[in-house]
Backbone:
């Protein structure tokens, strides 16, 4: 009698093991199916970045065609058109910000990169390249026309009449001085200008008289 009871108990355990193995097999099959469905329903990009154009929508069947456009925000640039006075003050310490009506009261911080060489025949047009210092807003990416506000570091120099400059729009310039009764030419660097004066750096001294067009 005891042997029969042991055999029954063993048979019951084997049945439970078989049921557990069947449940594990079913769970594994469900997992494989879920993984296959995820593979078929999730769009994966080869690079990280910002999605600015996506052709697929949820539930749509897609193939291997181009499904959208992703850009690396680290490569985004802002090109600004400047006047010569602004360009002359740009350097590592210069900062800027991007402003647009779309941003309302916000702005995007920019860092100066370099000056873009002038195109032949457009010497009076100076363009500068800037990079975003923080993650840009998505709606600022695609060809937005906006304003770039520059913040220049303080500069010191000699303030002379603008009419004394030999070349109106050139940063590397030349003026004529009367020093100790003798007229001499002096090379200067134009740091900035307004409608009447130019801020210059060069071999200028207190007491020099600057010769301007038509007089002194």
Residues:
């Amino acid at each position: 009698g005891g042997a029969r009871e042991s055999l029954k108990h063993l048979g019951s355990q084997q049945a439970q093991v078989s049921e557990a193995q069947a449940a594990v097999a079913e769970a594994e099959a469900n997992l494989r199916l879920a993984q296959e469905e995820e593979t078929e329903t999730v769009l994966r990009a080869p690079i990280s970045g910002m999605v600015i154009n996506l052709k697929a929508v949820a539930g749509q069947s897609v193939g291997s065609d181009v499904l959208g456009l992703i850009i690396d925000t680290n490569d985004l640039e802002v090109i600004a058109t400047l006047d010569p006075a602004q360009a002359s003050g740009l350097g590592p310490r210069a900062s800027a910000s991007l402003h647009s009506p779309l941003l309302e009261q916000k702005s995007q911080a920019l860092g100066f990169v370099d000056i873009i060489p002038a195109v032949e025949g457009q010497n009076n047009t100076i363009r500068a390249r800037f990079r975003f210092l923080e993650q840009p807003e998505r709606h600022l990416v695609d060809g937005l026309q906006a304003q770039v506000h520059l913040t220049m570091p303080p500069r010191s120099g000699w303030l002379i009449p603008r009419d004394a400059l030999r070349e109106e729009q050139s940063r590397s310039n030349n003026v004529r001085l009367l020093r100790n009764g003798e007229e001499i030419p002096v090379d200067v660097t134009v740091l900035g200008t307004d409608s009447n004066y130019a801020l210059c750096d060069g071999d200028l001294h207190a007491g020099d008289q600057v010769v301007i067009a038509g007089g002194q």
